[in-house]
Amino acid sequence: MAVAAAGLGAWGLVTGVAMTKSGLGLPLALAMTLLVYAGSAQLTALPLLVAGAPVWLIAATAFCVNLRFVIFSVQWRRLLGGLPRRQRIGLAYLATDNMLALFTARYRDQPANATQVAYFVGGGAVNWAAWQGASIAGILLGEAIPAAWGLQFAGTLSLLAVACALVRDRLAVACAAVAAAVALSAQALPLRLNLVAAIAAAVVAGLLIERLLRRGPAADRGLQ
Questions:
Q1: 91, 125, 169, 175: which could form a disulfide with 206 (CB 3.0–4.6 Å)?
Q2: Greatest distance between any 2 Cα atoms in the chain
Q3: With contact defined as beta carbons under 8 Å apart, do 24 and 49 qualify?
Q4: 109 vs 115, which has greater pLDDT?
Q5: pTM score
Q6: Residue 23 in contact with residue 145, Cβ under 8 Å?
Q7: What is the rounded distance in angstroms from the CA atom of residue 93 to the CA atom of residue 135?
Q8: Cα–Cα distance between 46 and 59 in angstroms, integer?
């Protein structure tokens, strides 16, 4: 987890600095990083907090940004859905983008077993410690960290490296290409909904391509 956690820590540092520079006091900034634990949602909600937007709008915005986790959780459900509800809630708190990529790569074709929970908790704990430690450091250091360091780009590169490791066949390449195309073409959408649109498009494309591939051999047999 160390490589992925390093990029996550860089992103957490940027988020902590952003909270301080936005004018949030120390208690509120600490509460936000510990309770929300979602970098994209935090960075999206900050301008609304500063502008004095109503609570419902801030909550709706954060919800839209994190809709991708609904799709992520479907992939975890096959292996972790049989756990007690309290345990699933705890795992949901530790769920991150890079945790999905690493977990899926490791347990793609395996049945449910106890080692998967241990892997999820261990990896999630490393990610959580990296994020919270860096985010709290960013909150405390505040103005001392210049934006010119480009730390947010380091976090993006780390997630990109993990995602690329999952692209192992032509189906994955096609889904990744669809997601990239939709994310770029829909950048004008508010609330970062281009990310949600990209995920949905990639899932639909993957299902359609997989169905076509299954029909191909069946059609060939029918012709014979």
A1: 175
A2: 73
A3: yes
A4: 115
A5: 0.69
A6: no
A7: 17
A8: 11
